[in-house]
Amino acid sequence: MAGKRSGAQSRRPRGKAASPRSVREPGNEPALSLERIVATAVELLDAEGIDGLTMRRLADRLGSGAMSLYWHVENKEKVFDLALDSVLEYRVSEPAGSRDWRGEIVQMLEDWRANMLRHPWSASLLPRRALGPNILARLERLNKILSGAGVAEADLNVAIWSLWNYVIGATVTRANFDLSQEDRAAAQERLADLGERYPALARSRLLLDDDWDGAFRKGLDFLLDGLAPR
Amino acid sequence: MAGKRSGAQSRRPRGKAASPRSVREPGNEPALSLERIVATAVELLDAEGIDGLTMRRLADRLGSGAMSLYWHVENKEKVFDLALDSVLEYRVSEPAGSRDWRGEIVQMLEDWRANMLRHPWSASLLPRRALGPNILARLERLNKILSGAGVAEADLNVAIWSLWNYVIGATVTRANFDLSQEDRAAAQERLADLGERYPALARSRLLLDDDWDGAFRKGLDFLLDGLAPR
DNA sequence: GAATTGACTCGTACAATGTACGATTGGATG
DNA sequence: CATCCAATCGTACATTGTACGAGTCAATTC
After folding, report:
1. Which of B163, B168, B171 is CA-nearest to residue B104?
2. CA geometry: angle at A123 spanning A97 and A130, to 5°?
3. Topology adopted by domain A101-227
4. What is the pTM of this model?
5. For testing the chain B interface, which of A121, A142, A165, A194 should be mutated: the one with the most B CBs within 10 Å?
6. pLDDT at residue A39 tops 90
7. Which residues in chain A are closer than 8 Å to B204, comparing Cβ atoms?
8. Cβ contacts (< 8 Å) between A155 and chain B: which residues?
9. Most distant CA pair in chain A, distance
10. pLDDT tens for residues B48-107?
11. Architecture field, domain A34-87
């Protein structure tokens, strides 16, 4: 209960990305902007991982002082929120939803997952209350597809959450179990351990199988089977 | 690349929880132990949230110096890992797997989720490579139930991952969208926003519905429908 | 009994972090 | 010219994880 509740400062550019008025143009100093900050944050996260993002390092990359960031951004948390949503970018391809609904869903969710896996740090950011515009756009889309497919009104929300849960879970899991860069030795040792305590698990080689993409697709198919309107 | 790669220290008690030899018994100083550390960490996380856990505060609660913790625990990350697995405690009720397999799965996954929601911080710890004994026990159990139910060998791992994904995703989501303690005003404003940009979403009231338990159960049923052996 | 060992504890110190605060800048507007 | 204000940034501070090494006892060895 100590260092909280500061907020309510005073001025901030908030939302209105109208005319940045091109301050500081004499030489060619690039000047900060929310877009540049977020883009650079993503770069830095890609390069250094989630602990590599500090306000000072981010400012360095931007050629500015650390405190300058705070004009554009409330705090570090906000940078994370924005970076996450930025990675989930979604432009509707918009064939309205006529074709096969399963294909559309699969495509959108695979794209969702692929986007996140391209930036593995994004998975560790999921556990935060971030409903950026891109996530919302994807939910909106899901809604349209499913209701267009004839899913009962009463089941609609449940169906959407189920798909959401599945994608989130699969991505979080996958991003953390990427063994290939892990010591193979550790995996082997773990398996030996498993043999004693968890025989079925060891036999199934669940933890060594690495066709994540295939598994994602197959599992999604199972879920869609269950979701399909009767 | 500055403060890393220290490790390889020297001695640590590692695993052997054999005889603590009752050091420091003259007065009645309780002395540290891994169990006490983890239990207290969970208490502290429950009380103060994920940012409330610092090595110093944890040590305070234990009545010890901060650095004493490092004899029992490699670093703070390890404390998180242990706290997470501790929350997922799983004792097999062990009716071997004769009854209806769906009921068994539903019960186990609802228990899994309930345990985590009782300690909301645990959701934000999921994105880490933590396969503690309790998680493994649950996976082992899932394997047994599903293969006992007649799920094809080739589908087994996919089925397990699907269920895993679903639980993880649902828990992460739920732990972060608990609006009731959130400003209701913000939710309303958000909904108004949605009306313009995301009409279907706004109409569905997806984000205001709060029967999370029911939705979890229904979605799980859908998934199990899809998973059921043909 | 004295000396040694080794399991465990902890005080001090340091580098790194997020960010509060206030000063500064320079273009736009009067 | 003076005024203003969006934007930048240096300094400072409290807080963090943890390296390092010194301290403390019980058990063990002489």
Report:
1. B163
2. 70
3. Tetracycline Repressor; domain 2 (1.10.357)
4. 0.87
5. A165
6. yes
7. 143, 156-157, 160
8. 218
9. 71
10. 999 999 999 999 999 999 999 999 999 999 999 999 999 999 987 766 656 789 999 999
11. Orthogonal Bundle (1.10)
